[in-house]
Design goal:
outer membrane lipoprotein receptor (LolB), chain A, single chain, mainly beta, globular, 209 residues
């Protein structure tokens, strides 16, 4: 499975350039994201290499709550409660259990590191997305420690939530994240982010901790 890096809620510590409108939009969006108690969303994730006609794409649904997440793909479910990660394969009825390592496992915060990376933003106007009007912001990232050097963000004009991001790395690979059907502050319990073996009779458990 391709690494799925989805979203959210890192503290705003960025150092942005002279485009005041773009900077203001980014700050407002980050403040909104930080205020969320939890959220769920449908998503599409894709990677396209330069010069290639093939795009690796996955889609599914995500739940998120302050560092915990549950991701539902076509044949796989991934749960993380910050300490432990479970990867469940439906067709095999088996689950792999491992210690959560943010550097190696799925990192739901990666996309919003863009908010704290040093960069120069530019406001590129408005675009329609998912039936809503979004601000489009381009960021030229100047932080050499950051794996991406360019980013386009589509931020919903009304909700201030991120709807889409296209990130370009130094090898010119484009990674696209697109979110829809976003629901916020649902009161999700912590148990939603832990695999429940009792709900899967006969499941084979491989504990790698």
């Amino acid at each position: 499975m391709n690494t799925l890096s989805l979203v959210l809620m890192l503290a705003f510590a960025g150092s942005y350039g002279p485009d005041d409108k773009a900077s203001q939009i980014l700050q407002q969006s980050q403040t909104k994201m930080e205020s969320l108690k939890d959220f769920s969303s449908s998503f599409t994730y894709s990677i396209a290499a330069p010069g290639s006609t093939k795009t690796a794409t996955q889609s599914g649904r995500i739940k998120y709550k302050k560092g915990m997440y549950a991701i539902f793909l076509q044949d796989q479910e991934i749960y993380c409660d910050k300490v432990t990660q479970w990867a469940y394969i439906r067709s095999a009825n088996e689950v792999n259990v491992m210690n959560n390592d943010p550097k190696e496992s799925l990192s739901v915060e990666n996309i919003f590191r863009i908010y704290r990376a040093n960069g120069k933003p530019r406001y590129d106007g408005e675009e329609a997305l998912h039936g809503a009007t979004c601000h489009k912001v381009y960021i030229a990232i100047t932080d050499p420690a950051f794996e991406y050097n360019q980013a386009y963000l589509w931020i919903n004009k009304t909700t201030q939530l991120l709807e889409k991001a296209v990130l370009t790395d130094r090898r010119q690979n484009n990674t696209t994240y697109e979110f829809s059907e976003i629901r916020i502050n649902l009161g999700l319990p912590d148990t939603d982010f832990r695999f429940q073996a009792a709900k899967h009779p006969g499941v084979k458990v491989f504990d790698e901790r």
